[in-house]
Amino acid sequence: MNTPLISPQFASSDSEPMIISTASHSSQRVTQRHGHSRGQLLGTLQGLISIEAESSQWIVPATHAVWIPPNVQHSLLGTHGQFEGWSIYIQKNACAKLPIKPCILELSDLLREAINRTMSWHNSELQPEQKRLIAVILDEIRTSPQVELALPMPKDMRLLKIALALSDNPSDDRNINEWGVWAGISRRSLTRRFTNETGFNFTEWRQKLRMLKALELLAAGKPITEISLYLGYDNISGFIAIFRRNFGVTPGNYQRAMRNRLSWRNFTYTSIQNDNHINDKLIK
Asked: In this structure, how many other beta carbons lie within 10 angstroms of the beta carbon of residue 14?
C-alpha cells in the first residue's frame, strides 16, 4: 500500500501539533522516495520493515527504530511478515538536538511505552504530565544507542549491479572473479572499491545481505530449511550456526519469539554490527 500514514501537509508542517503519532496495520506497505520537514521515528510492534535513505538500506526488527531527520529523502521498501507499525513525526524546531543523520536506534522499553502512551491521547490541550512525556521521548531519541544494522550499497554502477543481483538472488554463489567478469570490473578494483564504498569486503557484505534476508523470511513464517536453501547454504546446520553467531539466537527461537511477541530486547545483535487500517492521533 502506497498511501501515506499522514498527509504531506502535516508531515511538512512547522505548526502545532508538535508530534503526530500514527499506527498502521497492513499486510504490505511501500512508499516512494520522499522527504518532509518533520523528523520521523518509525518502527514495528510486529514484523520487519525495509527502509532506504542516503544510499543505505536497513532491514529493521521490532527491537529497533529508524530515525529520519527533517528533509532527508527516504522510502519504505516494504514490510515483512504479519505487520503492525508505528511512526511519530516531530516538528523541525524540536529536532535540533536529535541525530542529524539517518540511523537505527536501540528501542528502549521506556521509549516504546512512551510512544504507545501517546497513541491514546485525544485531547487538544495537553496536561503537564503529557508535556513531560514528550520531553522524555525527545531525550530518549537523543540518547538511545545507535547500532549498525544497515546494509550499505556501493555507489559504483558496476558494483551496484552486483549488489542488486545478489539482493534479487542471494543464493547466487558466483565467486569474486566470476562477478567481476559479469560486471566488467577487474578483481582488484572490485575488491578495493567494494571495501571502500560499503565498509565490508565482498564476502562479508554478501553474508550480511543473507542474514538480513533471513530476518525477512523468518518474519514471513517461512520454514528454516527453505530459508537456508534460498540463501544458498548447503546444509541447515551451517545456516543456523551463522545466524546464531550474528544474532545471538537460533533462527527457530527468533521465529518463535516473533510469533509469540516476546520481548525483543532479549536478543543480542553481535557481529552484524562491523494499510488497510490507519489510526492517526494528533498530539499537541
From this structure: 11
